[in-house]
Structures are given as C-alpha cells and as structure tokens.
Amino acid sequence: DYKSVTMGEEAHFYGNAEVYWRDVPPTVDGMLGGYGSISNIDLNGSKAFLKKLIGEGEGKTGTMCALDCGAGIGRITKRLLLPLFQTVDLVDVTQEFLDQARTYLGEESKRVGHYFCTGLQDFVPEPGRYDVIWIQWVIGHLTDEHLVKFLERCQGALRPGGIVVIKDNVAYEGVVPDDVDSSVCRDLQIVRSLVAKAGLRIVHQEQQMDFPKEIYQVHTLALR
C-alpha cells in the first residue's frame, strides 16, 4: 500500500540526514558546508532584519526568549540571538553539536534555557514561550507535511506579538533535492503556500544580499 512506501521513504529521508550531520565537524565551517566565510554577512543581514521587528512599540516583538531551530553548535545563538534576547533555547538533531555549543557559546551559555536533541518533525515547542522562533537552513530537512505541522506548533509556541522567522535557500523553480545531505530546496512560491497552509502570514520579507554568486538565493520571512 502507498502509505507504507512513503513512510519508508520518509524514514530514509530523515535517517540519511542524521547520518550526514553525524559526520560533519562541529565547527562554523561544518555548519555552513564549507562556506564559513559567509557567516558574518549572514549574521549582519539577520540582525538588520530582526531589529526592524523587535523592541518597544506597536506591532513589535518582545525580547524575552528565542528558539534556534537546527541550531548546530550555536552559530546563530551566539552572534544573533543571545545579544538580543534574555534566554535562548537550542534544538538540533545532532547531540555532538549541542555538546559543542556549550563550549562555543562560552560564558553566555548560562543564558541558554534548554538544549533539545530531536528532529523538528518530532519537536513540540512549549506553548506561549517564545518571542522569536528562528528557523534557518533547516526547512529543507522536513517533508511538506511535517513543515506545515511544525509551523503550526510554532504558532502555538509564540508569546503575544511573537514571530516565526524562516531564513533559507530558495530554488529558482519547483523543488530541488540534495542527495548529499538528504534535503530539498523549494522555490519561494512553494514556501509561501506551506506557510499559508500553516495559518501564518508573512509580515516582512527580504533577500539576503552579498552572498557568493554560486549559492542559492537566500530569503528571510517573518511570519505571524
């Protein structure tokens, strides 16, 4: 029957990704697939994006607690989230990365609330906990159905006025599979349709500029 085949494929898709990441060195370069040099450009773009949405005033988002999804060793937590939020939680499928994060984050790691070791397809964030849920370079590891369900759970995990941010590669057209790390890259229209299916709307959107020409376009979407 069709269902058991796709469940088998699904297990394969997630299992292969876990195996891939298990062999990746727990470094910034490892997190970025050899593109460690773009980390500063990436983080500066993210900071400018987030600063438009957080703080005091009408329609702004608080700075109590953030969640870093697919956090790896905490590259984004260290340079983007901990400087802006009182508490940050990390979730990643690879325990070795989370172990390394404690060292990598240094003294500031005392403001980490939780380290969750699980895939996002299985992760249930605590309702009403987060001002910002940051999901970067990881949605390609979720099936469409699991992405929609995860975004729905994220919506329930937001504090009043909170936002979900997706920052990810965008394909030119359709869905492009990557067999190396067992992921997919979707075009912007598909990402938008999955966001809408999850009952979220895009409140702000930007393209990350100044990345090397040979890599995918990267777009950042703030969702409520």
From TrEMBL:
<dbReference type="GO" id="GO:0005737">
    <property type="term" value="C:cytoplasm"/>
</dbReference>
<comment type="similarity">
    <text>Belongs to the methyltransferase superfamily. NTM1 family.</text>
</comment>
<keyword id="KW-0489">Methyltransferase</keyword>
<feature type="binding site">
    <location>
        <position position="70"/>
    </location>
    <ligand>
        <name>S-adenosyl-L-methionine</name>
    </ligand>
</feature>
<keyword id="KW-0949">S-adenosyl-L-methionine</keyword>
<protein>
    <recommendedName>
        <fullName>protein N-terminal methyltransferase</fullName>
        <ecNumber>2.1.1.244</ecNumber>
    </recommendedName>
</protein>
<feature type="binding site">
    <location>
        <begin position="92"/>
        <end position="94"/>
    </location>
    <ligand>
        <name>S-adenosyl-L-methionine</name>
    </ligand>
</feature>
<dbReference type="GO" id="GO:0071885">
    <property type="term" value="F:N-terminal protein N-methyltransferase activity"/>
</dbReference>
<dbReference type="InterPro" id="IPR029063">
    <property type="entry name" value="SAM-dependent_MTases_sf"/>
</dbReference>
<dbReference type="GO" id="GO:0005634">
    <property type="term" value="C:nucleus"/>
</dbReference>
<feature type="binding site">
    <location>
        <position position="136"/>
    </location>
    <ligand>
        <name>S-adenosyl-L-methionine</name>
    </ligand>
</feature>
<keyword id="KW-0808">Transferase</keyword>
<dbReference type="InterPro" id="IPR008576">
    <property type="entry name" value="MeTrfase_NTM1"/>
</dbReference>
<feature type="binding site">
    <location>
        <position position="75"/>
    </location>
    <ligand>
        <name>S-adenosyl-L-methionine</name>
    </ligand>
</feature>
<dbReference type="GO" id="GO:0032259">
    <property type="term" value="P:methylation"/>
</dbReference>
<feature type="binding site">
    <location>
        <begin position="120"/>
        <end position="121"/>
    </location>
    <ligand>
        <name>S-adenosyl-L-methionine</name>
    </ligand>
</feature>
<dbReference type="Pfam" id="PF05891">
    <property type="entry name" value="Methyltransf_PK"/>
</dbReference>
<keyword id="KW-0539">Nucleus</keyword>
